[in-house]
Amino acid sequence: MNNFMLMINDDTKKLTYWELEAICRDLQAKVSRNIIVQQELIETKNELDEELNRFRLIETFSNQAFLTDSIEDFTELTVESFVQTFEQPHCLFYEYQPDTRELHLINKFGFDDTIIPNKMGFNSEPIVKKDSFLMNQVAAIEQQFVPLGLTDAIVGPFFKANGAFSGLIVSGQLKQDQYYFNPINPKNLPAFTVMAQKVGLLLENFKTNQQLKQEIEERKSIEKTLEKQAAELARSNEDLQQFAYIVSHDLRAPLRNIKSFSQLLKATYKKQLAGDGITFLDFIIKGIGKFDKLINDLLQYSSVTSKPIDFEEIDLEEMVYDLVNNIYLPLSNGEIEFDIHPLPTIQANSLYMERLFQNIIDNATKFKQPNQNTHITIQCKDYHTFVELMIKDNGIGIEKKYADRIFQLFQRLHTDKEYQGTGLGLSICKKIVERHEGKIWLHSEGKNKGTAFFIQLPKKRL
Amino acid sequence: MLHFYSASTSVVNSKKAIVECIENALFDTATNQQHQLSDNALMVIHSTIGHHFPSILAEAKRLLPNIRITGCTCAGVIGKEGANENIRALAIMIVEATKENECCIAYCDNIRGENSYEKAYEMALQLKKQSDNVNMVQILASGIDIAADRAIEGIEAAFGYPIPIFGGTSSDNMRAVSSFQFLDQQVLERGAVLVGYADPTLEVEMGVHHGSIPIGMPFTVTKSSANRVYEIEGVPSWAFLMDKLNLPVNTHPGPCIPIAGMGELLPTSLHEVYDNKHILRVIVKVDEDYSFYMPVDCPVGTKLWITERNEQLIFEGLDRMMQKLLQKIGDRTVVAVFHTDCAARGRAMFNKILKEEIINKMQFPLVGDAQKPWLGMYGFGEFTLLNGKNYFHNYTTSLYALVRKSK
User: Fold this and answer.
1) For site-directed labelling of A446, which of A438, B97, B104, B135 has its Cα 20 to 30 A away?
2) A with B: how many residue pairs have Cβ under 8 Å apart?
3) Across the interface, do A36 and B87 touch by the CB < 8 Å criterion?
């Protein structure tokens, strides 16, 4: 048997082999047990690391959630991110409907083999705080989720920006998962709360955006429909104008024949026509005259609408003087007076401009006050890019309420007996101005106070 | 000639995860297009235990109808993108052959300690039958049930020489409950798969190290049969070990994996190549009589040490391993890397930053910034060829660099 020496404070004490072996075994046991302490330290250190990693994943989730396009993508990303972040195999994402007091399942993960009801009644009263909690900490909650097979879960309520309870995220394990998954660590609750709160705000944000998107899409759809309708209307107008042009053009020839033969009939067989024959024939000829005027006006209206326009430099002052001197003054018997102010030169179609002025002056002479000369003032204001013409008379005036109506087709404010006409003159004016990309309107102080027509026209074509 | 493509992902939706992996693996950055695979291709999958395996296998088959699929579960995956030990992590390596049978598969179900030799022998024969030119074998087997040294003997006996064997044993998330293996659309629980590589232009160079140290005095196995250890120092073996660790005797082996590594003395000839005097064994299965199972035979008289992982030794050992491996590779080109790491060296030991550092220390010297194919897993055990002999061990990092032979 060997003896071993152990030195203690210069005193020498001899230990037997067995005593030394016992000391070694004791030391061995202490060292072996120290492995566990060391492992616990590693695990504590790693827990902190994992907590940090969880927050990194939450940040990634937030960034990705902003990029999702649909509510389905968002909710799918949410449940997948909860599974990834908290390493639980199952996740349920519920939205709370306060009106029906129900939880509506909007997405789930890991329940391929389990049927989860889409709706369930829910009493939100136990949700008093915003913090996440373990399912088995709140009996009312446990009662709702245990029947779905969950045995261990974290429940994260989420809220709207105004603080109203908005839904739940439930993430956890079924019984069979417990082979591979550790029980849920309550240390994960704060991170779960953070992520659930984010989900609440993101969901609200998402829904608002979704609503806006929907509204924009609806508006776009309405705009499209309107555009389509406008295009259809334009086409239909075009067709109508074309039709009107063709009809009026083609009607003129037979009408001319009827007129000629009626006049010939009257001249040749005047004596043979007994009784009211001549009167009836006069009615026919008069009617044909009106019809001819109507067709002429229609033809003009159609041609203004459908034919391409050639633009040229027109000296309006010269044009107006020509009209006045050649048409109106020779026939006026001194009953029409003109006051023409300086007028500019603009780019326009000369024929249409003449027609425009002629129709308005005709209007002024037609709707004159009885026993009064017609006084017409023509003047112009020059703006930078456009001119504003005013043709003002002292006629019978127009009631304000008719100011727009009289520019419409066949709209007349008087009977044919009072004032003859086709109801197309001002419609043609409006069309001419519109074809020149201008505006026309009138102003009248009322009955017998005259009428002023205002016409804005661009000075140059772009 | 074999070509390799790899990818890994942390996407938790199993279907989306495999789609992402396949798309990323086959994306050719040079042409900005997906590489069109030939009909002779194989996919090795490593997945953590939380994934839905049937979905992964079905989606892989849907996307690549002609591909053969194998793989196993693990505690974490390691790809060129880094390590990922999430409960749902996935990594793949696609191996494309230009000729038929350049890579071939053999598999078995119900592999156990007592039949490991026979099952491995039969699988190796199947490989030989498919190709005479198999020059390296990858093994993926149940980490809980296999007697790995018997399996090695079986494979070597079939080939008639120590053919390089690399790979590892499957695991769960360190619970040591069950692990799974994949074969096409099948999910096996106690299976094993051998992949034979028959590309004459390829060689495999391996590196290994562990970085654990034995604590105090050894204990002697006093009663055992093959890999089942009944007693240590006359006491039921698990009860003895738990007492030493001050843990209750009914403690499950899963949580003990990080702290109950068993060391065995290595022959002197292997001290340098192994960078340690001890080889390590893990205990993942305990019987009701408190006997436990080692992954290799453990005859009466075997001396076992409790060991402790040492951070400094792990980092230093890693550097030495890489130096040796790079020396062995020389000027040959690395075309792909397989990697098995012990589950206890993952999150049970290192945080994310340290793990990233460890992975970088391996990947950068081997493949630089080239993003070469890399498939690794944190499993229950590792196979490595050392000094011309195949070994199985635990608690190691084992790297297998596939290199093109010099012309």
Assistant:
1) A438
2) 78
3) no
